[in-house]
Amino acid sequence: MIRNPKDLQRYTAEERANHWIVGICFILLALSGLAFFHPAFYPLTQLFGGGVWARILHPIIGWLMMIGFVVMYFRFKALNRMEPADREWLDRVGEMMDGNDHNMPEQGKYNGGQKAMFWAMSVCMLLLFVSGIILWRAYFSFPVDVVRLGAVVHAAVAAIMIAMIFVHVYAALWVRGTVRAMVYGTVTRAWAKQHHRAWYRQVTGK
Amino acid sequence: MALQSLDIARRSATTTPAPGVRQTTEVAKLIDVSTCIGCKACQAACMEWNDIRDEVGINHGVYDNPIDLTAKSWTVMRFAEVEEKGKLEWLIRKDGCMHCADPGCLKACPAPGAIIQYANGIVDFHQENCIGCGYCITGCPFNIPRISQEDSKAYKCSLCSDRVAVGQAPACAKVCPTGAIQFGSKEQMKDYAAKRIVDLKSRGYDKAGLYDPAGVGGTHVMYVLHHADRPELYKGLPNDPSISPLVSLWKGFAKPLATVAMAAVALGSLFHYVMKGPNEVSKELEDELEKEDAK
Description:
The complex is a heterodimer of chains A (206) and B (295).
Chain A (H helix, E strand, L loop, with lengths): L7 E2 L3 H25 L13 H26 L7 H8 L1 H5 L14 H24 L8 H31 L4 H5 L2 E2 L1 H7 L1 H8 L2
Antiparallel strand pairs in A: 1-2
Helix pairs in contact in A: 1-2, 2-5, 5-6, 8-9
Chain B lengths: L7 E4 L15 E6 L8 H10 L25 E9 L2 E9 L8 H5 L6 E4 L4 E3 L9 H5 L6 E2 L6 E2 L5 H4 L6 H5 L5 E5 H17 L6 E3 L9 E5 L19 H7 L2 H23 L6 H12 L1
Parallel strand pairs in B: 2-11
Antiparallel strand pairs in B: 1-5, 2-9, 3-4, 5-6, 7-8, 10-11
């Protein structure tokens, strides 16, 4: 039952399922990966059945995330093309952070910050995948210097990625009425008009 | 693998002190390459004491057998034929863990207690804590640890930590028929090496010297080399080994720094919410849309 038939459809069921497959994989990967990153996090391996299981499962979940992300990348890449209005939005992101978003430039389905995040995540995913393969000793064997570089890249990019996901999740929680878009697919018209006016006009024809 | 110990100097992936009330003498194994005859008694003794038998492999057309270290062969003799001053020299080096004072394997290991360094200098793998990630291989400057295909645990020479703990010399030193493998305190071994070097120099090897590389803080397996200026002659013994800067970066200051940075972003988000409040849809806009609907 739809609460209000005038709500706007932001994500289809397939898009939502795709996003959450990637999201769940990411959480599992972050927890198991942090366990190997610093001894303080090693107890997290218990969530996976111990250190050996965490080591076995981490790369397999990594594959799943990569496949899920590639599908998501092709779903959303056209919508994330950077435009001049996005650059202006990014230049004035301070105002947005300050909670004063009334004078921000009009945004389409995604704002400049979301687009920047999309591309940054795509680059991080690629780096994590390549360096992860290099580190996967159970199935691959690379020269030791390549593995050493891979280990640094994997750890550094993962740390950046975790920080970006914190921002991604926080942004969704901070901007009220956003989470429902990724949970059951719709947003209110007022939400769309306030945060993504160009998209609002496009879908409503107003 | 060893028994409960009170003389642990360092423990992998552990940020608090390990049990270390018992102080023991720093030990070392000295391998005098100039008196080694390549009989491989040390390889046989290693198999026997540790009670591990490697697969019978194939002959590669050289004396090296097996051709490389494996999870079941913790030491191998490496045979190098080099020409020096118009003469053939057969340089035979017993390869295996060097037991570095600053062990790259231990630094890289993410599993608490999988790698232990004892106060006597022995670096030992505790396979029951090993998770099989292979980071020790990444950390090692000498390419020593091997992951077993059978149980996915890392293995290498233990310097017979079980024998040393009860006052015995390692099996390889015990069995060496020419005395090319000596074992004792590190100081004694250095003194012994000094005598050997004097002898070698008197016989025309003016570059003879001790291999105890400072880049890894010194080692607890040392070599007497006739050509100490060119260790690479001995089947690629590294000239100036040290833990790769990439490993130091990965496992050094960057780790706590990144942990703090990630925590800062999470906490920053929370405080942003607390201080700026949520970004809500404006009432004005909602009312405006409602009015439109009413028309």
